[in-house]
Every structure is written in structure tokens, then in C-alpha cells.
Amino acid sequence: MKTALGIFLLLSMVLGFAQNHSHTSTRALAFPDIAGYVTLKTDLHQHTVFSDGEVWPTIRVQEALRDNLDVISLTEHLEYQPHKDDIPHPDRNRAFQLALEEAKEHDLMVINGTEITRGNPIGHCNAVFINDANRLMEKDSVLQFAEAKRQGAFVFWNHPNWSWLSPTGNPIWTDFQEERLKKGELHGIEVINTGYFDDASLALALKHDLTIMGTSDVHGLVEWDYMEKGNSRPITLVFAKEKTETSLKEALFAGRTVAVFNELLVGKQEVLVPLLEASVHIEKASYLENSKILEIQLKNSCSSRLLLENATEFSFYGSPPLLEIAAGETKVVQIKTLEILDTFSLKLKAIACYTAPKKHPIAHWEVVVE
Ligand SMILES: [Zn+2]
Ligand SMILES: [Zn+2]
Fold first, then answer.
1. Ligand 2 mean position, distance from CA 232 (Å)
2. Domains of the chain in sequence order
3. Which pLDDT tens digit goes with each residue over 215-264?
4. How does pLDDT run across 185-217, given as a tens digit for each residue?
5. Distance (Å) from CA 196 to ligand 2 centroid
6. Cα of 77 to ligand 1 centre, how many Å?
7. Is the pTM of this model over 0.85?
8. Ligand 1 centroid, distance to 158 Cα (angstroms)
9. Alpha carbon of 268 to those of 45, 64, 202, 238, 353: distances in Å?
10. Which terminus in the chain has less CB density within 10 A, N or C?
């Protein structure tokens, strides 16, 4: 998992971003809505002192507000509670209740959730939208999944590539997972956890039509674990019909998500492409004087830096075919269209984005020339 991150960081350095890499001024995460849906920024995997985290639940709410999130879930381990002697609260919903109280005055949804924490075959799974975590305690794993389903939970497989449970770093899909899937007890899979991306988990998501998830799994402070290292926390963008708990749940079950970690965006083609197209605004397009060179001004309105490669049949003029646009930045690209056009079909391949292992989406803008 570290190798993947290493390659990603190396790529960033080779492309020359390390120098001006700063997220501190743009901590608030921002992504535009797409046609027909509101884009909800969620982090549905976090811990507090009520399991093995290091902070009180109210801190998670305050961090989420700083990051401009729309939804959080505190998913305390059920079976693993190292602070139990100091915080012997018998109610496993307590972290949720404290966060809910703190969030009351703010525009932040708090969803009740928990982490089912077992060894193989299933490993760790989050169940969110539960109504009582206590009822999931002290049951065997099969019964836990049945109970989660009974409560109407959305269940996703956490860090399936974790080398503690899978020495190859590849998720181990067994009859147990197959049975959960068939019974409607498993709905999603993390492809990004704590900043680690796993393309074998992405392949499983696509193969079994599981919802693509990205989460921070934060235990310390978001400030320490992410910001100080120059990162934003990983999140899942959920494309919901409305900003309500019901719509959020519908969208998660329907698989309308994009997992995000800094520049890395991972999702199904049908939502990732519209997200990219909504994130880049064409501000201006006109020909350079006495030339057939089209100049297009683009603005990136999302909080992820975008790396876009020329996917048109034409060449860029005076610059390499790779365009980097930081969050909120405006860039100009010049294209040798060889003749004067009224409209231009701009196609850019987002090379830090994935719709499948090693597969990048191509976004498309129909540009009207002034
Ligand atoms: Zn876990
Ligand atoms: Zn966890």
C-alpha cells in the first residue's frame, strides 16, 4: 500500500507539483453539483475515544465543518475498544449521540454507524444508517450482517487490501463475501482508505457492482494525520437527488459515488465524467490574432488539482500535451485547430482519475468560439 502512495507522490514530484503543493489555504473541500444531483461530501469512516480513536466525538464534528463536509459517520469498532476501562459506556451508540448533539446547530448530517471488526474471511466492515449499534454486538459475523440488513444498513468492506489480513495486498474474495452479496448484506467497498488506493479493490467494486468508497478512517486529528502531511482527508462524494438522509442512502445503494484523495478521483464513468465536466468551466475561447490557433481559458472550480491530457486530434501550441490546473486556478491552453472553427470539441483525459484499474476518464466540453 505504501508503494502505491510512493508512486503517486513520485509522479506528483516528477510533474513538478511538490514545490507549490499547498492545501492549507484551501482546507474547505469543494465539488460542484452535477446534472440532476447534489454532490454531498462525506466521510463515513472515523473513530473516537469510544473505540480506538484519540478524540472526543465533538471534535469530529468541528473538523468536518472546517473541511466543509456535508455528512459524517463515527464508526466505532464493535469488538475492539481499548479505552473501555476509562470510558465504560455500555451504549455503543453514544459517540453518534454526542456528535449529533454537537452538529444540531450546523448544516452537517451525522449518520449512525459502526465498524464490524473481525478476522478473515470478512475482516472489517462498516455498517452505516443503523438504528442501534448495541444489537450488532456479541453476535457471530453471519448474524451481525443479518442484523445490519434488518436495520436497513448500507454495509461496505473496509480496507480490503490491508496486508495484516491479506499478505499479498490484494483483497481475498471468499464464499463468505459471495454469500453476503447474494443476501443483500454487502453493498460497497473502500478503494481509498487513509490515503491508500487499491486498484484490485476497484476491480472488485466493478465486478460485483459494489459502491466505490473513500474514507479517512481517522483515529488522531485530521490536522495531524492529513493536513500536516500536505493532504486533504479522503472522502466519498455522493450524488444524491436531494440533501436529505433518505436521498443520501438511495444514492449510496445506487452506487453514485466518487472516492477522492487529493488529486486522485475514483468512480464509475457515469458520475466521474459529469463531475469533471462540471468542475472545469470554459471562461473564454477565441483565436489568436492572424492565426488558426485557438486559445481557451479554463477554470477549475473543485478543490482537487486536475491533471488533464490532450485527448483531441489536434496538438497544443507551445506547451506539452499535459495541463495541470490547481484548485480554483485559471489556465490558458492554445490549440492548433488548423482552420478557424465556430465550435470546438475539447476532450481532456484526466490522468489522476480512474474509472477502472489503469483506465482514465475523458471529459468533453463543446466550446463555442467568440
Ligand atoms: Zn478497520
Ligand atoms: Zn476503522
1. 18
2. 2-9+17-267 (3.20.20.140), 279-368 (2.60.40.10)
3. 999 999 999 999 999 999 999 999 999 999 999 999 999 999 999 999 99
4. 999 999 999 989 999 999 999 999 999 999 999
5. 13
6. 8
7. yes
8. 6
9. 21, 25, 10, 12, 10
10. C
